[in-house]
Fold these 4 entries.
Entry 1:
Amino acid sequence: MSNTCLDTSTPSPDEDQLLQRFADYTQYQSAFLATLGRAERQLLLCERSFAESPLGSLAAETLLADFLVRPGQPRIRLLCFDAHYLGSRCPRFLRLHERFGHAIEMRRLHDEGRPSWESGFIVADQQHYLQRHHFDWPKGETGTNSRTISHLQGIFEQLWQQASPDLAWQRLEI
């Protein structure tokens, strides 16, 4: 048996080739759209409210609509901590949800069950990620590091189990 210890927190050089850092909201929004554009089969999205993201923009609507009509049954799973912004300020995204309800699942993590997770992220096809290091700051990174992706997917699944759909996303046709 070997006593060799590998540093599992350091990505290998080829996994980090696509690592790009962003430091302000403009760069974050560009990276957000670029990550959406890389998805072919599955998107996991997690944010406090998506207020700082371009999710309600025409560019995001176009990217997501193109994504959702691809063959192979693409899926979007969205998780947030505050449903108000999406429910009141993202009519384009809500239209996509109405049109592609079979492919978009949205849940909100309620305050009483909210863990100490404070980071927004996207995982596209288990191959690309975007992560803001804290909800209050735009700083973060995008990349292809498989360990980071696996970690973010695990966090997403844990949060998903504690979350539920929210009435703020239901549109009333009167």
Entry 2:
Amino acid sequence: MRDSHKAEHMKAILTILFLTGIFSPPALAKNDFQLACSDETPTLGVVIREVPEDQTVVTELFAFQGMKVIYPSLANFPSYLRFEWPRQNCQKFEAYAMKCEHTSEIQTIEGHRVQALSMESFNKIEQRDGQQVLLRKTLLRLSVDGVTHEIHGEFSELQCSDSGVFRSEPEST
């Protein structure tokens, strides 16, 4: 199967899984952190959630059109990456803002030694077209064979959900 067909196939499968709730995490308690963001295309999706029963924070990265689209130097990586941190290595700041540090476990992905060094999600207000816009930003720092890579995500607040499932359409206000 050609790369473009593979990307379309993966995109369709992931879309179906999210819309049917197969990938969605269980309902979390009110104080547990949960964020799912996906851009319009969709090209990039990010899910960050606490898993209270395991005392972990999970970060999942979905490259709907393949990693080469969002981060060309990791083009041979799979379209789905998952990293975990012990809860004690993470700090919540405000709604949708969290930071995890002190690395995750080392994984072997496509023959490379990969370790998530840190993950951040934060809110930022920016001026766009003369209006203030609230953005949800994410940053995942990875060490791949000892070289640091940063994968940035930027989403409008309408592209994010606290349900742990990507929104299929923006909510009406």
Entry 3:
Amino acid sequence: MFRDLGNYQYRPQKPEPPARRLTPGQERLVIWVLGFNVLMLVLGPFCGSSVVEAAISLFHQG
């Protein structure tokens, strides 16, 4: 019931490095991109429908 480990010494595992953080410039860029996407989410359908309506009126005969 005895196990000879041959002078084995326990070595604790290295802790994982912390997750990388964004720099302030990168955070600002992410906020601008998200803001632009939200703006396009709101305005996109209106702009798209007006472009389609303009194309239909160009080809309308009469």
Entry 4:
Amino acid sequence: MVWLKKVCKLLNKRIHTQPFESKKRIIIKYPIMRKVFIIPAVVLALGMSFSCTRQKEAQEAQTKTQLLTSARWDIYKVHQTVWVNDSLAFDETENLNSTATFKDDKTVTIVSLDKGTETFTWGLYDQKLQVGPDVYTIETLTQTELILTENSTESDPDLGSVTTRNRLFFKH
């Protein structure tokens, strides 16, 4: 409050104080003083809120990256469903014996019995994980579990609308 009074004296303005619930509240009498204090306060508050949002997003992305790259993932199951014109046409779960290792250099190595060893690049974008050309929605990402979903819809001249959903299940 001392610095406020000094600033007011420099600007040849007067301020008054009144008791307010056992605390003193500063009432600024002249409009120029309101602008001098309100505008920087608003700019500061907005800047801090945007900064906090960006920091939170960066921490969230960093956490996802740390979870992905912390250890090798076992791909133990894929669940595929196919709808034709909004009617379920196919629903199957297949057990897998594959692994995926996400590395800090943004490469992932996938080892499977039928395809051998494959290496792709990967990237995180909001709730999406891109592995090579494929983009998956991250349903779950914890210390021990990762569930990815890939949805696609195509039009077939004979069948109509065909919607496919693949869910990949990973665990440590």
